[in-house]
Amino acid sequence: SLFNPAFHAELVTSCVPVTLLDAIMNEFFKSITESFCQLTDSDLTCILASGQMICASKGWLNRLAGSKDAFLVFHLVKALSPALGKEARSIELPVYLPENCPDAVSRLIICEVYPGSFLVALCGETPALPSIDESLIGLRSSEEHLKRFKLVQTHKNTARLAIDERITSFALFRQDRKTLFRYGNFDHKKLKELAAITSMKTNEQSEEYCKFSNSLAYRVSNLPFTLVAFFLPNYSVDFACNLTRKTLAFLREKKQLSQLL
User: Fold this and answer.
1) Checking CA distances to 81, which of 48, 50, 112, 256 falls within 20 to 30 Å?
2) Distance between CA atoms of residues 157 and 40, nearest Å
3) Could you tell me if 151 and 25 are in contact, meaning their C-beta atoms sit under 8 angstroms apart?
């Protein structure tokens, strides 16, 4: 069911899910995002693939991410995208952004590039949608470009994080942008418990042991990031604490985190 939260982690956590790419793929999609900014005359653009954000413009990350508007746009795109590819590959519609622009109408552009992959922009009345569509012909017909979109959807060329195998799963949350990267399996019950943590106001640096069902979890916050790591229950709290600290420090060194998450 579309509205069953068990299938939509972002509905439970109120965060936009992201995919972290390796450096080469990250640069490739960053260049597409920048080109789409020029094409739509907007600095608010992003790319979604398989229901997750894989790249976003600086304007999107700095001005829109973290607001309710970004969350609303994300779900609007997910709701409208199944209609694309049948009769039209691009759509536009007026939207209100209650938090960022409550007194004016913005224009939402959604362009399918590859089945399940979309370029998204919030822009003004111009340029016209047919003009944008025409400019995307080269991208949509390039086998090399489409191959990379396909790789992302099959979770190839994602960031190789080399996480300690004793961490069964983890969630990395960025508080100021309301973005969430998940690694490993999360059932609905674990997501609900995770939502309680991501909604908490945390100090700049804080940590705590979290009691989860059937697992040991430890949370470490070093704003803007919060990491919740899950372990088998046979590990000690001290062990979980030390490894979670080290993992967050390791992840913060990853260039991809600052560029998207």
Assistant:
1) 256
2) 28
3) yes
